[in-house]
Write a structure and sequence with these properties.
single chain; Rossmann fold; 7-stranded mixed sheet; 4-stranded parallel sheet; globular
């Protein structure tokens, strides 16, 4: 069993954007933090940090100014989680989060008052708030419709230069593509293996040598996001020196290398801040002690660890992060057995059309919280005074269609830490 000196100020349950952000914010407040959770959405991220991009969802209206979009969403849907935060809180959360990424060598850039337009691997345009610096030149090239070459590789799935060019050909006539053999690569290629290989200067030189005959008349060269795992900016800078062109990355279809890059930042950065991490371990049980603290069971079998914490932040996400589970009749929250906001019957979970423009009712299911982000029971009272929730597990939002996932996760994690400090 844990001893008194093993008691933590806060347990963060979850390892996606919200969980990582909550651990970061709590440790910055000098709290003794422990974190656990399985693979979260961060691992399958495009690397973009969305704040708010689409509203109303059914109309597909895209917004240039994310702050105006948030204002409109909160006006139309007062229960949206953004309605629990001020603009200053959202802005400060994003700033602290991205500063941490920069300190760890993963620089993010963007505009303060507007979204950035970026290319997706399908060739569509996504409006997002912060992008990795390695993707920035792509947004510049897109805005200028500059002469640009998209590089594709034989054997790499999840990225098609031909599809990208075909999608954009009417809007971007000076966009073209070439498919080459990756130096030393044969058969099916994987982004992570390519990223490791490109740490070799010789591989970089061979790749550029194969590309340059096709890049004589272009200003920009775009690559799938495989340009290194730990220091992609350094590789981009070297490729620019070799090619004398502006270089940028485009995310591949998930799982792309952007997720592992973010994961690596937190895997090395959080422990250095004093956060105790139990990677890939789930909370399998919880009980409330006589003093009001939580005792969690982390893991299973002989490897199970008891962890005691004064407070907790639930940031387990929805289905992918195992924050919600579905049985034959209803959705359940498996850690605390909290009340879940959901359609009354399973038959109401989904719209008739699979690609219904308004999305599906189940996409807005989740945990109801009070103004301090404490989960509430069916009567509206806090289930636990020392439990807060953050991220996708919160009810009343469709982060995927609204394009607000990472921003909502980071901002509500900030708010949750702020509230548990009271």
């Amino acid at each position: 069993m844990t001893r008194n000196d093993d008691t933590y100020d806060v347990m963060v349950i979850g390892a996606g954007f919200a969980g990582m952000a909550a651990a970061l914010f709590a440790s910055a407040q000098g709290l003794k933090v422990v974190q656990t959770g399985s693979t979260g959405g961060i691992d399958f991220s495009t690397g973009f940090i969305d704040l708010m991009g689409v509203h109303p969802v059914a109309e597909g209206k895209r917004w240039r100014n994310p702050w105006s979009a948030i204002e409109a969403v909160v006006r139309d849907f007062p229960k949206h989680p953004y309605g629990l935060l001020s603009t200053d809180e959202i802005s400060e959360a994003i700033d602290i989060f991205t500063r941490f990424l920069v300190e760890q060598g993963l620089e993010y850039v963007g505009h303060q008052e507007r979204n950035t337009c970026s290319l997706t691997p399908a060739g569509t345009i996504k409006r997002t708030y912060r992008v990795p610096k390695t993707a920035w030149n792509g947004s510049v090239a897109l805005g200028q419709k500059a002469p640009t070459l998209i590089v594709d590789f034989h054997g790499l799935k999840g990225f098609s230069g031909a599809q990208l060019v075909e999608t954009q050909k009417h809007h971007w006539p000076e966009l073209k593509t070439v498919r080459i053999q990756f130096p030393g690569g044969r058969g099916e290629l994987y982004p992570e293996h390519m990223a490791w290989a490109l740490a070799d200067l010789g591989i970089q030189e061979k790749m550029i040598a194969a590309i340059m005959p096709h890049a004589v008349d272009v200003e920009y060269i775009g690559f799938p996001a495989v340009l290194g795992l730990n220091d992609p900016v350094k590789i981009v800078n070297h490729l620019e020196k070799l090619s004398e062109k502006q270089i940028f990355e485009i995310p591949t279809i998930p799982p792309s290398i952007a997720g592992p890059r973010l994961r690596a930042v937190f895997d090395r950065g959080l422990p250095s801040l004093g956060v105790r991490t139990h990677s890939q371990k789930m909370v399998t049980g919880v009980k409330v002690l006589d003093n009001g603290m939580f005792e969690f069971s982390v893991g299973t079998g002989a490897a199970m660890l008891p962890v005691t914490a004064k407070k907790a932040i639930l940031a387990t996400g929805r289905f992918f992060g195992k924050g919600l589970r579905a049985d034959r009749k209803k959705l359940v929250e498996p850690v605390f057995d909290l009340s879940v906001v959901q359609p009354e019957e399973r038959g109401q979970w989904h719209a008739q059309e699979f690609f219904a423009p308004q999305g599906h009712p189940v996409n807005s299911a989740g945990i109801e919280v009070d103004e301090r982000l404490r989960p509430v029971d069916a009567s509206g009272r806090p289930a636990y005074a020392n439990l807060h929730a953050a991220g996708a597990i919160l009810a009343h939002h469709d982060w995927m269609r609204m394009k607000c996932g990472a921003g909502l996760a980071i901002a509500t994690a900030y708010k949750a830490v702020k509230e548990l400090m009271r």
